[in-house]
C-alpha cells in the first residue's frame, strides 16, 4: 500500500509536468497546427493492421479477466447469489424464487430495488451449464468486453485511431473495469448497456437510422439494470434529443420512432415505479408482473427525499470527490492505492474535458459535434447522479467510470497530439501500475476478498450437504453480521442449488420434509444439541465449542465450521 502510494504520487507529479509542457506546446503551436484538422483520419476504413492491434488489446483484456475466473473472488457476494438464485428459478419455472411470474423488478431482501436485467441474462447460461459462480458471472464479463469494443468505436469516430487505441488500452486494465467484470452485481450492467447504446446512437446518426433505433433498445435495458438510470438516462436522452432536433441531425419522425422504441421496451419498469410511488396494486399480465413492494425504502437514497437536504448534499459531494481521488475503500469495489482509476491519471480527466470542449467549439461535422456533446453529457449525468444520490460508493456511481476512462484517455491523447515522444512516458507508467494491480489482485487481495464473499460459509454449507445424510440443517444467521439470517439463507440457496418450488414449500423432500421444516437459520445454542439427532450444523467460531469432537466431525472453513454427527457422516 505504501509503495503504490509513493509511486502514484511520483507519477502524479510527472503527469502534471507533462500536462504543463503539453499545454505550453499547444498554445505555442495552436494557430500553426491545430490538432485533428485532418478529417480523413477519422473517417478512414479499418485496415488490417488496425484490426490486429484492436484484437490483440481486446484479447489481452479478456485473458487477464479469464484467469482464475470463478475462483477469484472466492465465494459469492450475497447480491450476486440472489441474482443467480432468481435466474435459476426463471430458467426452470419462469418465476423468481418466491414464485412471481416474470417479474419486472425483484423483491430482493423483502422489498423492492433489485434490478432484473442481469438475472435474465444469466438464464441461458444456468439453463445449459447449471448454477455456479462462473455461470452467474459470465454475463457481466461478456457485457464488459462488448462495452470495451463499443468504447473503441465511439472514440475512433470522434478522435481517430490513435485516440481510440489509447482509450482502449487504458480501459483494458482499468482497476474498476477489471474488478467488476469478475463478479456478479446487477447494477454493473448499467454502464455497459449505456456505452453500447451510445455507440449505436452515433452509428445511426452517421450512417443508417436503424442503428439509432437499436441504441434505444440498450438505453431501455439500462432501466432494468439500476435504479439511478431513472434520473440519468432520460436526462441524457433529452439533452441529446434537443440538440439533434435543433441541429436537424435527425428528422422529427425519426426521433419519435426512437422514443417509441425506448418506451416500448421500458414502459413496464416505469409503470412499476409508478405502482410503488402511488401504492397501487401489483399488475400481472400473461407475459410479466409489475409488482408493488409495500416495504420499499430505497427512495430515501435520493437527495430530494432526505430530511436535511443541505447536510446530505455536503456529504454527497464529499463522497463524489472521494470516488475521483481514491475510490470508496470497499474491498469488493476497489483496491486501496489504485482506486477506480489510478490517481496519477486523474489530472488527465480535466485535460480531457478541456480538449473535448475545445473540439466541440471548433468542430463543423454534426456527427462529431453530437458525439462530443454526448461525452460531456455522459460525464455530466454521472456528476449529477453523484450529487443527488446519498453518499455514493463505486456501485452507485458506476455510470461515471466510463467517462473517467474516456476523458483521461483523451487527456493522454492530447499529449500525444502535441508531442508524441512526451506521450511515450505513459507506457512504462501504465505497465508498472497494471502489473502491480494484477499482482496484488491475484495474491493478497484474493485472500482478503474471500471472507467478504463468504467463501468459508458457502463451502461449509456445501460440505454438510455432500458429506452427511442428515435430515435437518441448522445454519448460523451470523454470516454477514449478527442476525443476518436472510444473507445466510440466500447463500444457502445458492450453495446447495435448492429448487425454488421446494423453497416455496410446494413439495416435500425424500425425507418427507418441507423446506421450512428442513432448514433453520438460528444459532446452534438455541437448539437441542444431541449427536443422536440427524442434524448438521454450520456455525461460527463462537459456537463451535458447543460440539464434542468425540461425537461430531468438525471441519473448519475459514471463519465457519461444518459440524456433522459421527453417525450421520458419509
Structural class: mainly alpha
Count of spatially separate domains: 2
Strand content: under 5%
Number of strand segments: 7
Task: Please give the largest β-sheet.
Answer: 5 strands, mixed
* Morphology call: globular
Question: Counting H and I runs of at least 4 residues, what is the number of helices?
Answer: 23
Let me know the average pLDDT. 91
**Quaternary form:** single chain
Order of helices and strands: HHHHHHHHHHHHEEHHHHHHHHEHHHEEEE
Describe it for me?
This protein is mainly α. It has two domains: 2-444, no CATH class; 454-568, no CATH class. It has helices at 2-29, 40-43, 48-66, 78-93, 117-129, 133-159, 161-172, 175-180, 189-206, 210-223, 233-247, 252-277, 309-325, 346-362, 366-388, 401-418, 420-423, 426-441, 444-452, 455-466, 485-495, 500-503, 515-518, and strands spanning 283-284, 289-290, 472-475, 519-520, 535-540, 552-557, 560-565. The strands form two sheets. The chain has a five-stranded mixed beta sheet. Helix 4 (78-93) packs across helix 6 and helix 10 packs parallel to helix 12. The radius of gyration is 26 Å and the shape is globular. The protein starts with a helix and ends in a 5-residue tail after the last strand.
